[in-house]
Amino acid sequence: QVQLVESGGGTVQPGGSLRLSCTASLSRFRVYVMSWYRQTPGNQRELVARIDGADTTVYADGVKGRFTIARDNAKNTVSLQMNSLKPEDTAVYYCNANYFVEYWGQGTQVTVAS
């Protein structure tokens, strides 16, 4: 059974920071493109950040300069450091692994509110 497990979600005030982590049970973790998506009620999941096996990163326009994605292939983890959080960042954040076969985590709630 392949499992992607997210952690680090919670409630934070605007301007605050959170660090999300995803641990994957993939045997060849280093070849997977790892991504963070987020979803709010009634909306489609949207890509937040992506990092491939060469450590090339892609960010959604709305999070550039505030969020940083990184991976640790020795630990089979991918993280999302979120700084200067805004209320519009509130969503369920999902970890995704893709290398011809795709896997999803169950999601972790991030709430940014005063």
- Tell the overall outline: globular
The arrangement of helices and strands along the chain is EEEEEEEEEEE
Strand content range: over 45%
Number of helices: 0
Based on DSSP secondary structure assignment, what is the total number of beta strands? 11
Task: Give the C-alpha Rg.
Answer: 13 Å
Fraction of residues in H or I helices: under 10%
Question: First CA to last CA: what distance?
Answer: 40 Å
**Poorly predicted parts:** none
Largest sheet composition: 7 strands, mixed
Offer a concise description of the structure.
Helices cover 0% and strands 53% of the residues. By secondary structure, the protein is mostly beta strands.
Task: Describe this entry's structure for a reader.
The chain is mainly beta and 114 residues long. 0% of the residues lie in helices and 53% in strands. The protein is built from no helices and 11 strands. Strands 2, 4, 5, 6, 9, 10 and 11 form a 7-stranded mixed beta sheet that branches. It has a 4-stranded antiparallel beta sheet with strand order 1-3-8-7, with no helix packed on it. A hairpin with a 5-residue loop joins strand 5 (46-51) and strand 6 (57-59). The chain is globular, with a radius of gyration of 13 Å. The N and C termini lie far apart (40 Å).
